Amino acid sequence: MLASDNPEAWKEPLLRVLYDNTYLIVSASSDDHTVLEGDHDHFRLIPEKFADWVERTKTGKVRSFAKTRHKGGGTDGELLQTARKQLKGGTETAVQQSLTAFDEIYFEPDITELKSKLKQYVNAYLHEGGLPVTETHEEGAQQARANLQLLVYKSLAEQHSLRNPENLFKLCAAAALPDDDAINYTDLANNTGIDRRTLDDYFDYLEQAIVLSRSHDYSLQSHREGRLYLRDPLHMAMFSQRQLRGSDSGWNREFESAVAQQVCFDHLKRLTHLSENYKSDVEYAETSSGLVDFVVRSDTEPLSIPISLAYQGVKTPAEATAAVEAFDPTNAQPAHDEGAFRSPYRIVLTDIVPRDCQDTGTLRVEKDGCILYYIPFWLLLLAI
């Protein structure tokens, strides 16, 4: 259901038509939040995107800039709008146009003063998870925990007749552990006491509820291991028993980098689902020079985009560069009907743009036959 601009206008009519066992999904502007009072359970279906969070919580030039990503949010031809539209295109030409727009945006004189603020806001988003600012730190943490418990112990337990719904929490806890190594599913089943055959069912339940998603190796067709991602940064803090909000206690560079990786996966997953031009899976790739965190495949041509994240110095831009350079797109499984996959563009997401790029005035670097782009983390998130 699409809500009107005034939540109070549709609140009362909805309450009159709600029955038992009714699920109601309301889509509205992120500015217009309301709660249906009464004997009803309510929770966010998915966490708020970074761009929506910026637009809702910030003011002035930062908010105005974020709004230019919408059609009609700014003047025709706004660069952020172009980057966002072309990113969804999924073709080599569209991806190239999107990356060119990113390059122009970053070096646009009008947003020079905004770049440091947007970098700070990414950090705040990782800690807050996009919860409404009207909630106190404590209330926000408690509500996030209560929402997930309600989803698991009531909705999923009843829907799938689960005798031990707490096992779903065990899988979420495993996903919250920062680890560069893929998780072997047989080992995970043994460590959690969950039957191996049941494990896949549990994964499916959590994926359908948009709580947890799996990522698999780009070069393997049989998946005996994978990487697990919680879809909400608040859940990362909850299951790792870090402070949820209002304090940096328990957060270190390694954990913050892991949350950034989770947020990046979540946003890329939204991109592949929102655009019919991509395969819905967001994969990873092991190379001789390290891990490529994410690989996105076009669904319209044999094109793959390797993306490596260099955040908080846990992985340096040089290490991320080496990984995407070593990526071999022809290792794809399954292969594309139209021939071998190619990766003309390779992306390093970073919180610190390399000095060489700053000096030359471009995020684009040609090296050993590869075209690399060093894209600021905040800029990619804004465009999704």
What does this 3D model show about the protein?
By secondary structure, this protein is an alpha+beta fold. The chain is built from 15 helices and 9 strands. The protein has helices at residues 7-17, 50-57, 60-67, 79-87, 92-106, 112-128, 137-159, 166-175, 185-192, 196-208, 233-239, 253-274, 317-326, 355-360, 377-382, and strands spanning 183-184, 212-215, 225-230, 278-287, 290-298, 304-310, 345-350, 364-367, 370-376. It is globular.
What best-fitting shape do the alpha-carbon axes yield? Answer: globular
Strand content: 5-15%
What characterizes the major β-sheet? Answer: 6 strands, mixed
Question: What is the helical fraction, as a range of percent?
Answer: 40-55%
Low-pLDDT windows of residues? 28-33
Task: Count every helix, treating DSSP H or I runs of 4 or more residues as helices.
Answer: 15
DSSP E strands, number:
9
What class would the helix/strand composition place it in? alpha+beta
What is the overall pLDDT average? 85
Give helix and strand order, one letter per element, not per position: HHHHHHHHEHHEEHHEEEHEHEEH
**Main sheet: which strands, in order across?**
4-5-6-7-9-8
What is the radius of gyration? 21 Å
Distance between the termini: 23 Å
